[in-house]
Structures
1.
Amino acid sequence: MKTFRVATILALILVMASLSACQTLTGRSAGRYLDDKTITAQVKSKLTAEKATNLTRIGVSTVNGVVMLTGVADSFDDKAKAEALAMQVDGVKHIQNQVQVKGTPAASPR
């Protein structure tokens, strides 16, 4: 029984060590991928907790610490508020704010 326990622990250590060197299809390590998921969750939590405005229609994604905000806001102030809230999260390196303001024409594609 003790040999099985030692073998299990060694197998777990081996798996954890190999995961630290693995990369996802996007080239991110497993740790970076988890960090990005954590940042996304924290930004979404801040947007949802904001009671003064309706920021729940804003989508959030994160790649390598760069947060992309998409969706629709009711005003330019709400758009700026979403960006400010996202910047408060640890690990955010940059914000790409692509939120459209309700009632304004969408940006033309280039």
2.
Amino acid sequence: MNLGKAIKSVRRQLGITQYELAEICQISQTSLSQIETGVKRPSQRTMKKICAAFEVPESVLYILGMQDTDVPASKRDIYAMLFPSIQSLALQMVSSEHSKLLEGEIA
């Protein structure tokens, strides 16, 4: 599980800087950097704040952070077959939520 990579990916996709996300989540930019690089795991409270900032359910970040090593060897074939579609759906959810954000800012 690489939650940090998922957070960084979504943050970049949404065009949010590390500084901006850290401010929104009321954590230091150093802490966010450590989360994104995998040095530190986000607390449950921080995860909730990050998800609120991205306007996505936590499950989206967990899906995007999944790696094949998280799956038992006996299930990796089915994981390899299904995961690209699941990941694509999760990314669409991020994009669709971001579109709603932009529409709200324009209106």
3.
Amino acid sequence: MDDMFGKVSEILAKQLRLQPENIKMESLIKKDLGADSLDILQLLMKIEDKYGIMIPDEELATFETVADVVSYLEKAGAKLD
């Protein structure tokens, strides 16, 4: 996958043991995808490692949907690998 959504959904799918096609931009990370606080923390650690960025805690608190994560990464200038 060559877009940010594809990369984020790939990481989410692996982390939460879901099928990538079940993850949509509007999916609520906790409610729709079943992530708990630990899942979200581990997800963000993977994203930080993969893209070499740091996500401040105050930003983390604003992530509710997959689109929130994708939008943040795009604004932060995360580069696809």
